[in-house]
């Protein structure tokens, strides 16, 4: 858990492995999320986030209010493979890229990057306006940087 502003960030895997909370309690919490502006964001959280976490395809983080543990929003992070054409780069840039990627025979660099795959703000009446989009995005970027640091990146 990571305290920040008026909320904490919780990996849903923590819910899933906690015997007191568990998947049933997590599903109840997720059912309180509403995003009428983007039904796909709501559908992902309620129907796919747990499956993706169990399959290690993506990890979803919940932003919970420190006051009453209300679900304010969420974001999901996954690893995305990237291929970058190295031909137009200077040798200096190529050396820098080579530190965290592999160069194939076509002068393409293969690397992985963290991707904020989903980002959703809860518009339910009881939490509307308690978190800004900027706070939600900053929390996602902070978590992605933390993951990168833990994995040995810069």
Structure write-up:
Helix content is 37%, strand content 30%. With 154 residues, it is an alpha+beta fold. A six-stranded antiparallel β-sheet has the order 1-2-3-4-6-5. Strand 3 and strand 4 form a beta hairpin. The two termini are 22 Å apart.
Q: pLDDT under 50 segments (min length 5)?
A: none
Strand order of the largest sheet: 1-2-3-4-6-5
Note the overall shape: elongated
Oligomer: single chain
What's the total number of strands?
Answer: 6
Average pLDDT, rounded to a whole number, is: 89
- Give me the strand/helix succession: EEHHHEEHEEH
**SS-based class:** alpha+beta
> How many angstroms separate the termini?
22 Å
Alpha carbon gyration radius: 18 Å
The number of helices is: 5
The helix fraction, in percent, is 25-40%
Query: What percent strand?
Result: 25-35%
Sketch the major β-sheet.
6 strands, antiparallel
Task: Briefly say what this structure is.
This protein is of the alpha+beta class and 154 residues long.
């Amino acid at each position: 858990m990571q305290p920040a502003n008026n909320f904490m960030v919780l990996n849903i895997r923590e819910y899933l492995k906690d015997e007191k909370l568990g998947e049933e309690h997590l599903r109840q919490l997720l059912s309180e999320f509403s995003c009428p502006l983007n039904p796909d964001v709501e559908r992902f959280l309620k129907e796919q986030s747990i499956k993706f976490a169990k399959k290690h395809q993506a990890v979803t983080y919940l932003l919970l209010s420190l006051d009453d543990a209300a679900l304010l929003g969420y974001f999901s992070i996954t690893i995305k493979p990237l291929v970058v054409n190295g031909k137009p780069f200077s040798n200096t840039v190529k050396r820098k890229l080579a530190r965290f990627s592999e160069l194939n025979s076509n002068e393409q660099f293969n690397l992985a990057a963290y991707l904020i795959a989903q980002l959703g703000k809860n518009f339910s009446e009881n939490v509307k306006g308690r978190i800004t989009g900027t706070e939600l995005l900053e929390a996602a970027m902070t978590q992605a940087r933390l993951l990168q640091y833990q994995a040995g990146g810069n």
